Every structure is written in C-alpha cells, then in structure tokens.
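Hi P.,

Sorry for the delay on this. The queue was packed all week, but I finally got your sequence through. Input first:
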Amino acid sequence: MFLSEQNPPIRRALALQNGWLYSILRRKMEIVSRFFQPPVGSYFLFGPRGTGKSLWTQARYPNALRVDLLDPNTFRTYSAQPERLRELVEGNPTIRHIVIDEVQKVPELLSVVHSLIESKLKRQFILTGSSARKLKRSGVDLMAGRAVLRTLHPYMAAELGRRFDLARALQIGMVPLVFEAAAPADVLASYAALYLREEVQMEGLVRNIGAFSRFLEALSFSHGAMLNVSNVARDCQVERKTVEGYIEILEDLLLSYRVPVFTRRAKRELTAHPKMYFFDTGVFRSLRPHGPLDRPEEIDGAALEGLVAQHLRAWIAYRGNKEQLFYWRTRSGVEVDFIVYGPSNIAAIEVKNSRRADSRDLRGLRSFQDDYPQSHCLFLYGGRERRKIGGILCVPSVEFLKNLRPSEPLWPGI
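Then the structure:
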C-alpha cells in the first residue's frame, strides 16, 4: 500500500529520499513562534520528522555551526570519521552553539559530543533527532545527563492564532511540514511512505515491509481506543510478538504513544490496557482506511480525540513535564478520555464530536468526580456555547484548543 509505484505522491517521496523533500519544504515553511523554550545547557531536541526542529534551530541559532546528517555527503563524512566534529568545533572557537541535525543517524558522534562538553569549552550542543531507537541502543547513555531531553510537537492551535481552523486540522493535522505545504494532502500521503523508506526499510528495522504496512493500517483502528495487541496481530496476520516489536518501533520513531490508565487510590476495578494514539491526527487519517462500512462520525470522533491528546502532550512537555497524562476506565466500561494529573491539581476531560452537550455524555466525568471529589471536570464538544450541566463545565473544543497555552493552566480555575 505505502510503497506502491502507482501512487504519485509516494513515488515523489521515494525519489526525494535522504532529506531532499524536507530541504525543499523547509524553505517554504512559514516561521511560526513556538511555545518551546530551550534549556540553558546542551540538550537533545526530539520530535517526529516535519515538526520543525531544523527550522526552529535555524531561527533560534542563526550563527551556529551546523552538521546536517540528512545531507548524504555530511552523513558519509561523519560516519567514517566522527572525530571530525572535534576538529570543526575546535577550529571555530568563537562560535558557541553547535547544532547536529538527526543525530541518531551517526550515534558515534555522541561520545565526541560528551568529550567536548566535559572539556569545559562553554559550548552549547543542540542535538536534534526523529528516532530514539539507535540512540537507546548505541550511545545515549554516554551522555550521562550532560544533555537534557526535550521534545518539539506539532503546532498547537494557540501558536497559529487566527490561522487555526479546526475542520482543517481534523483533516490534515498539525505537523508543520504538512500544514505549510502548498499541497498538504499529497505531503500527508507521502509521510508514512517516507518513514517506511528512510527509517524502517533502510535501517533494517523490520524484515517484511509488507507486513509492517498492514500493521500500520490495522493499528489505525486502535487510535483513541484501548490497545489490544492480540486483536491487532490477528487483523494483520502476524504473531503477537511481532506486533509488540512493531509498536516499539513506532514509539521509538515517535510516531505513536500510549496513554496509561489512572490508578492512583482507585476505588473501583479498572481496566489494565493503555490507549494508543498516533502523534498527529492527520497522520492517523492518512493511515486509516475508510469505505462503505466505515461511519464518518466514528473517524471524525477519533480524529478530534487525537487532536486534543496531542495538544495536551505538547502543553505538558512545554511546561517541563510537571503533569502526566492518563485516561480512566472501569471494568464495567465507564470511561473518561483524559486525566491530567499534576503536583497541585487533577483534571478530567471528556471529548465528544457532537454539536450538543447531553447529560448522558457526562456519566464518566460524574463517576470520576465521585471517586475524586477534588478533581476539575471539563466536557469538550462541537457546539458554540459554554454551558454548565450538573456542575460540569461544557466548553467548545475549538475554544479550549485555541486557549491552551503552556504558560497558563488548562482552563481558568484549574
């Protein structure tokens, strides 16, 4: 499906591999002020491809020494001779910032970076990456805390301001690479294929790329739902252990994540399965097949829930990961989509892609509030008015997303 030579967008993506597609689109992407605030010292900046890491570092550090490992010649040079980085840094003693793009391509550079940080040269290293897999297996521990880990997420609605359109976001997502493209649908269609080619197939992460493609399609039905590995394995006709390995690959590539169940001081029997999301709702839609048996409202509902999830993750990350994201579900099936648990408060958020707020939709929130009276509850829906039903605040989803800023609480009073 994803490597079909009959699909023009995918064919273009394969022809423009090794970063050329990204280089072209970087020049077209508009500079948007991001909420991400960098630390003082050296740091890793992780995020999926296309989230704007390179563009952000170019704007933030315009005079930095830059090593772009997506460039084939640069990749070959530093793969053969990682020590060349030391020569570059020591040959430019007045330049304080050194940016290494896609550092996971040459993990051996980390030992050189570690040594340079230890030499007290007062340099700041910014190490961007779109995959944690190689680093976890071959060198990230060498940094021994000398560089902190930060993440850059897709756009938040408040970063875009008036440019944010909920209907468009639900269709193409919020990945800057896609959002800023002249033909976002084509780029989105190419996105998964580019990952399959560059990160999965070329790195030899899986033996059967066809099975992995089927797995991506099968997993798309679990977006915003409890993850049942056995069901996914049956749907894509591979072993359960194989699917577990595939999910680990996706998470290492930062393409998906799991949200665990909130179990603190639980008063009821709770489910044990986490929920699963793709990192961006547009990427989810590009992978999710649809036909006569698929209800549009079902896909739209999962897309909206995923959009809220990615905003909450970004909000938490940009605040320094002080809060944690969970969901809540009893064994009897009573559920709350998101629980945001922080040092001083706890918020429960339910998301429905409906025009009306109905008291029946608040059942999960009421049950959670019965167990956790100190919690604050929000119901997000597709209407236009704020309402309060039975003491629970109902807020239009678009209003919530537009006002979500890391410098402020989830909602006034929370």
